[in-house]
Amino acid sequence: MGDKGVCPVCKKDGVHTCSACKAVAYCSKEHQKDHWKNHKLQCRPFDVKSSKNLGRYIVSNRDLSRDAIIMSESPLVFGPKMAGAGPQCLGCYQPVDPGDPKLLLCPRCKWPVCSNVCFGVIHKEHHLPECLVLCNNTEVAEAGNMMYEAIFPLRCLLLQKKNPRKWQQLLSLESHVDERKKDKDINHDVEKIASYICDNFLERLDKGSLPDMSREIIHFICGVIEVNSLEITTGRGEVHALYPSASLMEHNCMPNTKHCFQLDDFKINVFAATPIKKGENLSTMYTHILWGTQARRDHLKATKYFTCQCQRCSDPTELGTHLSSLKCIGVDPSDV
Ligand SMILES: [Zn+2]
Ligand SMILES: [Zn+2]
Ligand SMILES: [Zn+2]
Ligand SMILES: [Zn+2]
Ligand SMILES: [Zn+2]
């Protein structure tokens, strides 16, 4: 009998050990493949935990060496950034010029696109779900209106119908909606987006075509996007995306993970940036690593609603790097 026991599919001796977790063995590669659907949750090297302070967070469940793959997952939803999004192709997020006489339009919804063969415009997972809703929109693309800021929240709302499982996962993400509602400026901005979505898109949908079309759910979604979305720079434009597990990684100014994105489907691959011990919280960086402590903390407080207490933030020298220290250039001789 294999030392990891019997194949969970057929109970014969297990000889092919899962190379990721080494906790289970199969009689054959075929049965390993067949069993992956069940095994993948146990195989992943992290557990999701929750606490009052941190909300939900992620902890490694085994020792990980540097560069070990931690997760590879598809986004729940992705779209143009919310604040200040300008005219862009809804397939690839490349900026477009609405005044360009050669501007191409999506044949169905008449929103600008970069080309008629843009991958994201044709692909059924990318632009198509909202394309059917945008057909009802009569506004013309121009800089400064709300059209593009409303797209990401609209895509989130459409998940209710398009993919109820992903919708449930989105509902489980943190939104800080109560704190956000108390902030006059934020509340005003979200109200503008909510009004735009309701008047231009939802009003024209058949009643009941989405289970929840309330202003409350739009406030919640805008909070989820602001708190959890990760920014992807594609070389053509900028996309923001929400992930079921990667969005749960906590912030640390010395993160123990690093990640990269696949640019065709925005799948995220997360790796260990340092050796990680079993039981360590997995962290990423929500702000800019080369900013000084004051700037990082101000940014985190304003966008993510917490004051970072990490080792780097607690050390005035920022772990000996003196990234925010002022350099004393001595006494001006003319003052002596
Ligand atoms: Zn078997
Ligand atoms: Zn495994
Ligand atoms: Zn495009
Ligand atoms: Zn379209
Ligand atoms: Zn910090």
From TrEMBL:
In alphabetical order, the GO MF annotations are:
N-methyltransferase activity; protein methyltransferase activity; S-adenosylmethionine-dependent methyltransferase activity; zinc ion binding
List, for all copies, the residue spans of the domain called MYND-type.
7-43
Every SET domain range: 39-287
Could you name the domain of life of the organism this protein comes from? Eukaryota
A Pfam family in this protein? zf-MYND
**SUPFAM superfamilies on file:** HIT/MYND zinc finger-like, SET domain
Sorted keywords for this record are:
Metal-binding, Zinc, Zinc-finger
UniProt KW Zinc keyword: yes
Q: Which InterPro entries match?
A: SET_dom, SET_dom_sf, SET_SmydA-8, Znf_MYND
Would the keyword RNA-binding turn up in this protein's UniProt record? no
Name the PANTHER family for this protein. AT24727P, SET AND MYND DOMAIN CONTAINING, ARTHROPOD-SPECIFIC, MEMBER 4, ISOFORM A
User: Per its record, how is this protein called by name?
Assistant: MYND-type domain-containing protein
Specify the taxonomic lineage: Eukaryota, Metazoa, Ecdysozoa, Arthropoda, Hexapoda
